[in-house]
Structure formats: C-alpha cells, structure tokens
Design goal:
binds zinc ion; mainly alpha; 8 helices
Length: 158
Amino acid sequence: MTIAFKAALEDELTKLGFSPYKQLRRFVRKALRVQSPQEKFLEEHFKKPNQASWDKFQQVVQDPKFSREVKLHPASDEKLQRFIGSMNQMHNGNVVATVQGDSGKSYELKRMRGGRLGCTCNDWRFKRSHQNQRKEQDCKHIKKHLEAARAHRSSGVS
Ligand SMILES: [Zn+2]
C-alpha cells in the first residue's frame, strides 16, 4: 500500500468512526493486561460519567500523559479531544490579560495556539473551549478584552 493511499484509507475509516490503530492497541493492551493509571481512570470515567468524575477529569486533564491516553481512547470523540487540547494549552499558556467579570471575580486570559484566546471562566471552559466555529469560541470576557484593545488602537495616533 502506498503511504498516500494508506493515509486516505485511514481518513475514511476515521470519518466512519472506526480507528483500527486505536482498536488494535486496545486489544493488545488488554491481552497483555497493561493498563496505565490514566487508562484505568478513563475506563472508569466513560463507564459511568458523573459530576464527581468530571470534576476529577478537570484536574487530570492537565497531565500530557493523560491527553495522549484520551486521544487513543475509543470513547473519546473530536469534541472531547479539542477540550483536552484547550485545557492543556490553558494550563501551560502565558497570561495576556486579567479581566474583571460582572460578579467582581477576575479571570485570566491566555494566548492559545493559533492566536485565539482562552479564559479561566466556566463558560469558556465548558462551552467555548471545544468549539470549532470561530464565532462560538469566545466568552464575554474575551470579547470585552478584544473590543477594548480595538478601541485603544483606533484612538491612537495614526
Ligand atoms: Zn471568560
């Protein structure tokens, strides 16, 4: 099989929700009874996800080993993988601004890969971080920050 053909085939299979690599790896690991702590956690989590396990998910998600494991897990989908990717970037990213929310609580904005911003608020974490559509990706804090930056630029001497 040529590499291009193999890649195209894998693409098609992935679109159909079938990943031979994932399944093969899972099979081998099961047969050998190899299970990393991350894999064990995911196994339990996907079996019966509940509030407590999602809270724990939030913590472990910052571990790169864990994100690798999520990518390979058959129960994870693209949305979840985008969520994990964002959480990782938020964990490692540099703070570009701190904004005050309506409640007086302050949130940190961080620069993500590709230039987009991330926020530490719950709206961003749970609803925005995994969005694919550009216009769905920003929470109100990010929007406010970008607007202020735009206003600042346009008021400057040109
Ligand atoms: Zn926010």
